[in-house]
Design a protein that fits this description.
Layout: E1 7-16, E2 24-34, E3 39-43, H1 50-58, E4 65-70, E5 73-74, E6 82-85, H2 97-107, H3 111-114, H4 116-124, H5 140-152, E7 158-162, H6 170-187, E8 190-195, H7 198-204, E9 207-212, E10 217-223, H8 235-257
Parallel strand pairs: 3-8, 3-9, 6-7, 7-8
Antiparallel strand pairs: 1-2, 1-4, 4-5, 9-10
Helix pairs in contact: 2-5, 4-5, 7-8
Bound molecules: adenosine-5'-diphosphate and magnesium ion (MG).
Length: about 260
């Protein structure tokens, strides 16, 4: 397995300008590196720029300043080597599960040569037997598994996920967290996940970027060295979670006082 998909952001700024409104500084001089094949999470309150950061790496937005590189190639726009998964699965309702997952390959004319990967991924995300099912017959968790498989069918180096488990109930969510670990460990893809849930970030990530809305920057980078699978009740787990909560809370108290 060749590990690639290293991400480097250098002094990245994003300012949204719209006529008649004040400019919004969504990101201010963000510099961070994400190692090839690592699992990185971004946590922070609503509006602190998490989605913007992800969309910049995806190439869906251009930075107002600074540079973003993936394996030393500057990001110039969307590319199939950077896959995306959202909170809603957004499957095509008129296609069955197999067709949904094969969609990207078909669109790129690669289905005949790459068709084997579709079954492989359906197996990996635990949906064997549901190949012919249509999205409305699948539960929320199953739809999200399908969305992950669809993104992985393009063999992305980087998988960008914006609150991928945010719409699921807490039990399904924990099962899916293990699913994400399984996917990551078996495919070696660089995983970048936005989440509101600090515990989820600590359970999954090697690196956590903590953002606060006060200055549109990364407030703190926490490296988590614990082995997998992680035990939520362990002292080290709680310590790291508490450390992150403190960065988030202290900042929000500052804001309230202003
Ligand atoms: N297309 C846009 N035009 C104008 N402002 C935007 C746009 N997208 C995001 N913003 C603003 O940028 C800031 C960061 O947004 P976002 O990245 O969506 O935050 P988060 O995902 O952390 O909730 C917010 O103030 C938001 O209103
Ligand atoms: Mg968001």
């Amino acid at each position: 397995m060749v590990i690639s998909g290293a991400i480097r952001m250098q002094n990245v700024q994003k300012i949204f300008e719209s006529e008649g409104y004040e400019n919004v500084r969504a990101l201010d001089r963000v510099s961070v590196t994400m190692a090839a094949g690592s699992f990185v999470s971004i946590v922070g309150a609503s509006g602190c720029g998490k989605t913007t950061l992800l969309r910049l790496i995806a190439g869906l937005e251009r930075p107002s300043g600074g540079n973003i590189f993936v394996d030393d190639k500057e990001v110039a726009g969307p590319h199939h080597e950077r896959g995306l998964v959202f909170q809603q699965a957004k499957l095509f309702p008129w296609l069955n599960l197999h067709e949904n997952i094969a969609f990207g390959l078909r669109a790129r004319g690669l289905y005949e040569q790459e068709r084997g990967i579709v079954g492989e991924l359906i197996d990996l995300v635990g949906l064997t037997g549901f190949e012919k099912a249509y999205p409305h017959h699948l539960s929320g968790g199953m739809q999200q598994r399908a969305a992950l498989a669809r993104a992985l069918a393009n063999r992305p180096k980087v998988l960008l996920m914006d609150e991928p488990l945010g719409a699921l109930d807490s039990l399904t969510r924990e099962v899916m967290q293990d699913e994400l670990l399984n996917i990551w460990q078996s495919r070696g893809t660089t995983m970048v996940m936005v989440t509101h849930d600090v515990e989820e970030a600590v359970y999954l990530s090697e690196k956590i970027l903590v953002m606060t809305p006060t200055n549109s920057r990364i407030e703190k980078i926490v490296d988590v060295a614990m082995a997998y699978p992680r035990v939520r009740e362990s002292q080290e787990f709680r310590r790291i979670k508490e450390q992150i909560m403190q960065v988030l809370n202290i900042k929000s108290r500052f804001q309230a006082a202003e």
